[in-house]
Amino acid sequence: MAQQDRIPGKINTSQWSTLSGNVHPNARSAYDRGKADDALEMSSIMLVVKPSASQQAALDQLLADLQNPASAAYRQWLTPEEYADRFGLSASDISKIEEWAQGQQLTVTGVARGRNAVMLKGSASQIGGAFHTEVHTYLVNGETHYANATEPSVPAAMRDAILAIRGLHNFRMKPKTHKLTPAYTSSTSGNHYLAPDDFATIFDLAPLYASGIDGSGQKIAIVGQSRIVSTHLSTFTSYFGMSSVSLTTTLVPNTQDPGISESDEEESDLDLQWAAAVARGASLIFVYSYDVNDAAQYAIDQDLAPVVSMSYGECEESDTQSDALTLRTWAQQANTEGITWVTAAGDSGAAGCYQSASGPFGGASSDLSLAADIPADIPEITGVGGTTFNEGSGTYWSSSNSSTKASAQSYIPEVAWNDSAADGGPAASGGGASKFFSKPSWQTGTGVPSDGARDVPDVSFPASADHDGYMVYTSSGQQNAWYVFGGTSCGTPAFAGLLAVVNQYLLSQGYQTASGLGNVNGHLYSLAASAPSAFHDITSGSNAVEISVCNGRRCTTESSQGYSAGTGYDQATGLGSLDAYSLVMAWHSGSVPKSTPAIAVAASPKIIATTGSTTISAVVTSGSGTTPTGTVTFSTAAETLGTATLSGSGGTATASLTLTGTAAGLSSSANTITATYEGDNTDSAATATVVLTVVSSSAATPSIAGLTNGASYQKSYAPGMVAAIFGANLALVTTSASTAPLPVSLDNASVTINGVAAPLYYISPTQLNVQIPYETPASGTVPVIVSNNGLTSSTSIAMAAAAPGIFTDTSGAIVPSSTATRGQTVTIYVAGAGALLPSVATGATPGSAGTPVPTATTLVTVGGVQATTSYIGVPSWSVGVLQINFVVPSTVTTGAQSVVVSVGGLASTGATLTVSN
User: What are the DSSP calls for 447-487, one per residue?
Assistant: First the structure.
């Protein structure tokens, strides 16, 4: 059917109708500085079209059908021209408005593709005359603005077709950022700042990137109100090891060029860089004008991208009712085109009006009344709130950065963002109940208030500049540098990037044929119930803010009311932050397809006596890259042995259970133990097995046959010496220590000497090699106790200050070289050198204080002739073994000669060196 005309005949200028709700709250007498210059150029006037009652009803139904999988219209997005034919004015009515405007000496600069707006320009005198109002100037917070002083009027014939007149004032929304200076200094301060790969790790984007899901082929429109320097974005991506990102920049046609505005340029740099940080393969379109709302309207009307990100807002009471309704008409048009519009929920906590309210002399007032921000509160827009990391006693950051400047190791718990007390003014997640918009039907679920109002925010991401802010490369006072940013404007472009990733995934899987998600809010609330693993529910903190109010030298603290985070939805953090992988996987089906994890299980030790114990450990590695959660159950065929909770990070987690040899379900034989991972919301269940052998106590009762110097096998002993213990059932397995410091227990075998645990080099059923602790007295008799799985045997040894023994082969020849010529330098190794200087810890290699040498005089003789030594000391790799390098004396007799090392007059025996000419 042809579109019906709504303006009957030619527009009659003798009858007029007032449009209420078009006077800005700051256009008040206290700020009025008189009539504006008649020649003042007003270049961005927009007549906003109002759908008819029947059109609005059809539009509401279409918006519902577009999100209903059972509808034939499901995700059948409109073009702007299709929107115009169904919900805009007829071409004839548009022509009538253009003809009327030209008759008022106004210039028509454009018509929206959706035929829901006509753009005009003219002087203040012409605009005032055309709309039966007067344009004045106003001084607010030290800034001069212009605005209409009274409600405007339009010809009565146009009244039912016109919703609002935009551009009659130049008050603008403010960016929602908090900036910290100086620049990034984590290497010296120890603070953590978010790099793109930190965000990817914390919010589970890494497995998507690994699968090629990074927003490739998608577009994101970022809207702002300043020019930018495009190289800031390329500096950002290069610094963090990312590929370059496609960027196009567009000034809204026929609108005022804002030039460079420092705070707005910073905001735009942040938005572009963090949209790119998340959607690394997407193309970015930066749209700007003097007023960010004009940029948003242009991005929507031109259908530039399926996601529009806007980090601006103001409290509802600071906006005109007509502007609020105008923004909603744009948002509804966006949703019909498949566009998702995301905005920041505000940075003044529950007291949304604090920053934008004004006192009688142009200064900021302490308005701490409850207020939500617009446009985040519009039901067709998704509002993004703020959180703060809350590490507690957990370890979530590496001690050093990766090559991409990242150090986060896993998801970090969050609380509601609120730095107000620390920062001395409002700095908290915006949120609350709208006074303009009623509660949409989809806003339901645990925690959603029964207040009849649209509640914000919908979701949240980190927003604290203090802990831990986002890295941004931007200009400040003409200085290009790295800065740290916070505010809900940080999470907004990041969420926009995540939506681009969702779009790519759905297209790649054939779940939709065109890019675009439209109004995602209803789906988010549905997913919170059906796929809770896609959300991090924030249950602590609040957005009640504190400010300092000073009168002369006296300052007091004032606090606002606010909203506390809690289970499910809350007006501080919405549904919480998001697990990107789970969200993407759940988007189509409402549940997360589970990946198959890898599981490995081990017993340490693998053989125990009935008197001993072992630790069974299961290591679970997620198939998706997320860190597994939940429990592992350990069992035999006969019985469940116990359950342990997984703990870990970086995609891997471990659960461990300690068992005794007499545990129910274990037999005195080989036992097959099964570890069963129960699975979680991301990974399915998995099992693995290990064999644990249990032997009787009689097979583990040790007996000691002898104890000797580990080098000379003589029965002489000194502190720090390598000693060999011989016997039966000294251990159940044969193994060696792999690292230093040496362990004091290996597979349930241990030794104490004079009550001090002796480090172990090697264990077997018939021999233990141990180090006599340096703490052992250098004289007298001391007890030696061997323990095997809790069963013991004891003996005693007589200690001396030194008991040197040279390591030899089985024939008594020194090692590693058993032959040498006169004058040749030879190396030998000695056990039992006694006390050292500097001292060395028992079981450890030398420290950095210098090479340890015996405290007593150390000499070497060959064939009875004293040799010159070139090196005496414990090498850096050695535990308890002395190295000596000596020169074979030129006067020694050739043939097999005895080599003797004496320490403090106590001599070694039984070593030979074959000397030749």
Answer: T---SSEEEE-SEEEE--STTTPEEEEEEETTEEEEEEEES
